[in-house]
Amino acid sequence: FATGPRQNNSIFYEIRTYDIKPSKMKEFVEMVNKYIHLRTAHSELVGFWSAELGAMNKVVHVWKYDNFAHRTAVRHALANDKDWQGKFLSPALSLVERQHNEVAYLVPWCQLGKPPKEGGVYEWVTFQMKPGGPALWGEAFEGAINAHVNTGYTRLIGVFHTEYGLLNTVHVIWWNENPDHRAAGRHSAHEDARVVAAVRDSVRFLESQQNVLLIPLQCSPLK
User: Fold for domain 106-216?
Assistant: First the structure.
């Protein structure tokens, strides 16, 4: 029941989350910044971040694919790329404790955005919604997101709905100039009757929510 309306094309995004060994986080980030060009030679990287608040020793990266055949071809090419395998993948795997991936589509009412400038912070918010998919909660959820957008304190980057992974999951990426700007904006939003009403309508379908503050890596296209 989770599959619902999405963009009118076959493009999807693979969201990868890695838990890094605490003593190896610095080393892992340095390796990514040094060798990620070997990986981006095969497909498009949307963003690569490390968690600052809400999680520890965690990185999140998002990759764009035209369709599933495209991803299959990329994975095959990577398996045969000796530079990628030898310089990054083999040594990096020893630094990783867990890997998790999901396939998600942009919701039909959202385009992937960009921040107005570099140097800000990203907030990755994961909503676990009740079973039933967008047919059940999509309209209310859209209203809650747009209510926050309309306050003007934050910039919406993207809204993704899972297709593979834990279903009825929605990931929302926001951008703010800094954590204090975000905190002040949230305080104002909580006192805005329009936001309160929209959130109250949407939260009826919510099972859980997690917020993580992310810092973009030097190599991340979204900075």
Answer: Alpha-Beta Plaits (3.30.70)
Domain(s) labelled CATH 3.30.70.100 in the chain stretch across: 12-104, 106-216
Measured in whole angstroms, how far is the alpha carbon of residue 63 from the centre of its chain?
Answer: 10
Q: In the numeric block, which tokens belong to residue 29?
A: 């980030």
Residues 191-217 have a mean pLDDT of 96
pLDDT > 50? residue 1: no
Nearest CA-CA partner of 207 in 158, 137, 160: 137
Render pLDDT for 17-63 as a digit per residue (tens, 0 to 9): 999 999 999 999 999 999 999 999 999 999 999 999 999 999 999 99
For tokens 């968690």, name the residue: 51
Instruction: Output the six-digit token pair for 135.
Output: 């047919």
Write down the pTM of the prediction: 0.93
Architecture, CATH, for domain 12-104? 2-Layer Sandwich (3.30)
